[in-house]
Amino acid sequence: MSKKSFELMLKGGHPNSLGRTVVVVEMVLADRARVGELYTCYQSEDAVVRLRTSNALKRISSEQPEWLVPHLERLSGNGRKSVAKTLLNL
Known about the structure:
By secondary structure, the chain is mainly α. The protein has helices at about 5-10, 20-30, 35-40, 45-65, 70-90.
């Protein structure tokens, strides 16, 4: 499954809903190698996808915090830009 597939799973529905976020979390928890794939969804043009990506990573970090360690630099650097894009709806 590609980044586009996770992105498609996280699209649509009401912006305040989780959509299929929990399903994506379960998929990543079943295969640690997919954390990076999920992270790339921060590059989505869709603000809802970026918001749900944050929610999914938060859920994953509560169960497997060490899985995000390799991505911390990217989260602190690019993550700020993604959060800004989400907040500004750009």
